[in-house]
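Hi V.,

You were right to ask for the full record rather than a summary. Here it is.
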Amino acid sequence: MILQGIRVLDFTQYLAGPTVTRLMAEMGADIIKVERSPGGDPSRELPAVKDRRSGYFVQQNLGKRSLCLDLKHADSDRVVRELVAKVDVVVENYGPGVMEKRGWDYPSLKKINPRLVMASISAFGRNSPLSHKTGFDWIAQAFAGVMHVTGPKGGDPHPVGMGMADVNAGVHAFSSIGYALFHRERTGEGQWMDISMVDCLFHMHEANLQVNQITDGAYVPDRVGSHHQLLCPCGVFKSPGGHIALLIVQLQWPNMCRAMDRPDLEADPRFALANDRAANQAELIPVIEAWLASFPNDVEALKRLDEFRVPSGPVLNPADAIHHPYFLERGMVRAVEDPILGSLMLPGFPLRFSGQSDYSAGTAPLLGEHNRAILGDVLGYDDGRIDTLVETGVLNSSDR
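Predicted structure:
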């Protein structure tokens, strides 16, 4: 496995940080998840919870080992510093100032381990005029302008219905760690990455900034609802079984006309060029929806669109998508056996490497499940020393 032998000290919670270490676990890294006593990662309480076990926590923490410490105790600080000397990577997404307060910020940890690679994930960045602000996914979506361009046309701003800011920042941090490790292999030097959820989302504006400037403000980014302002057909169209998404640029427009058996549309000056179709989309959209309605079902409509290489896809409900052959054959839906929740169908690993075929990450840990194994295997503590840490409350674990 690609990251076999890489050890990670994981000070993450909720979603953005755990995304990083979940991906690394899938690639073979040893993830030591440091959880604060007594409750551990707060996502252990996020809905839905069954038999005191959160499916949310399970999904984000597959394949990790849990070390539960009373972080207020001086002996916990010693344990952490000893672990820092033994790891390759530290990942954290604590609130503002938490790592600095404990003396676990990068300048401090680098003195212990000069080869250390460390990633810090926060809403507004650590080196930032807004570094003091606490923020979660929807706050980042709002500040980065994502909410402003999401929702019904003329309606209120809407959040995207998934952890977009968290996961996006987590994937950016994951990639930055890979490059930092590559740099370390060449130079022997570790480094620190300051990853902002807002930055990662703002980076995704592919046209909203520059089109506004090039048009001297004539184009104003706003909520477009089901159809794009600048392209048509580009949006969500009513279909016999629900909705079908189309995104057709100039090169595909002749294909669409042929699929519809409507050469007249290709010749129609109202629809000849992208700008024309966008300006006249109120006339074009009903024509396309009427054509889609002529099919007995969405399967037949999509089959026709595929035949003419028209970019299209059904609008799937995630709860239904887990049964779709695409996700099953790609391994993007897989059964994970949890000791408490039983079998869960969860998203699979999204990356494909020719040099790695096994993406089984194991189960999510119980709180403090690996206290003894981590302190014994990694730090060489004997049973007596570990027992003392248990007795003094430094170590905690679930009572399951």
